Amino acid sequence: MVSIKAPRGVRDILPEESWKWAFVLKTASEVAQDFNYKEVHLPIFEQTELFARGVGSTTDVVEKEMYIFEDRGGRSLTLRPELSASMVRSYLENRMDQRPQPVKLWSAGPMFRYERPQKGRYRQFWQLDFEAIGSQDPYVDVEVIALSVELFKRLGMRGLDVVINSVGCPVCRPVHKEALQKFLEPHLEELCPTCRSRYNRNPLRILDCKNPTCRAITENAPKTISYLCPECKEHFEGLKVGLDVLGLHYSIDNRLVRGLDYYTKTAYEVISGDLGAQNAVCGGGRYDNLAEAIGGKHTPGVGFAAGLERIVLTMEQQGCSFGKEPSLEVFVVALGDFERKEALKLMQEFRIEGISSDMDFNGKSFKGQMKLANQLGAACVCILGEEEIKAKKISIKDMVTGEQVEVPKEEAVTFIKKKLTE
Ligand SMILES: [Zn+2]
Ligand SMILES: [Zn+2]
């Protein structure tokens, strides 16, 4: 035991779990390729202004505690709480508006939020993030939704459902906001404290409060889609048409709203699971005013983010396959100086041929080495004894059947290859 432990709210992803992550990441990369999204790797920390814009704008990202620190040069930096803002920052900074539009990017990596740790919630967590920047076509929104559904399908998830909404734009939102406030005013005292504080600055978020009293009050509240301006209305119709064309089933959720002003038009979630145990596995939508909010020129964009921990957990709950767990194929047993040199050479031959192999590095006895091979789950054991080396042979033991045969040394690789494909 060491006295230094990992900081509160974070955890280690150990080999027992990491191979599952690798499967999800590999699948994401394949789906990205099929939808023509290119991978980018962006910095984990950014200038604080990228995430905290304008003092007094009590937005949700600002509310969500962020990891903000000052570096030695006195600059305020922030560990990224999400990826969209970094993606748009990178698009603007690298003049990606000069490339064919929309620019379609994806990335995976850790995000950071200083939240109260609770089950399944960590201060460092991974997200997969897909963004299409530079088009307002509702079919790009359709593509983003189709991409996320395809990803979860390939991961074997069950009961996939798409819920959509439109949160409007700076033209139609104020009209809805006024109607909503008017509707809520007589119930102000009954709302939960959080919602009461949201009434003036961000009443839209009252719609997605989980508090039963708040939910009952907002049951018949004015819907954002009833107040859409002609442009937003047309966009929302286009979205529904595109989803229908692809045969992607969806339902409209009037409570699906966003807290930040730069989110526009489409908001959506993909839900997976059997009834009663449903989980939102990704959330996304359009953010046509984000580029301007961070000081760039107006650039429409749409995308989604999915938490890796949540995906893996949902897959485990649903008994989904993560493919074949990587396992050790050959363990080479050798005693004595000369034999160990031969073992080192043999192991290298296997490895060059793509056969995973290992040996003992702790001076174990023959019996100890056999036990180690077993613990490591080796499919076969190659025994390099004094007699075998003299006869230029190798004993190969099948660890499942226990069967043992002698083969000429130069045939070892071919023999093992054949055996592993049986
Ligand atoms: Zn609008
Ligand atoms: Zn509430």
Order of helices and strands: HEEHEEHEEHEHHHHEEEHEHEHEHEHEEH
Seen as an oligomer or otherwise, the chain set is: single chain
Q: What would CATH call the architecture of the largest domain?
A: 2-Layer Sandwich
| Major β-sheet annotation | 8 strands, mixed
Summarize the structure.
The chain has 422 residues and is of the alpha+beta class.
Properties at a glance:
422 residues, alpha+beta, BirA Bifunctional Protein, domain 2, 8-stranded mixed β-sheet, elongated
Provide an overview of this structure.
With 422 residues, this protein is an alpha+beta fold. It folds into 2 domains: 15-172 and 228-317, Bira Bifunctional Protein, Domain 2 (BirA Bifunctional Protein, domain 2, 2-Layer Sandwich); 330-421, Anticodon-binding domain (Rossmann fold, 3-Layer(aba) Sandwich). The protein has helices at residues 15-34, 60-63, 84-93, 138-154, 173-184, 193-201, 212-218, 230-245, 290-293, 308-317, 337-352, 366-375, 386-390, 412-421; strands spanning 38-39, 45-47, 68-70, 76-79, 103-112, 124-133, 161-166, 250-252, 264-272, 279-286, 301-307, 330-334, 357-359, 380-384, 393-398, 404-408. The longest helix is centred in the N-terminal third of the chain and has 20 residues, at 15-34. The structure holds zinc ion (2 copies).
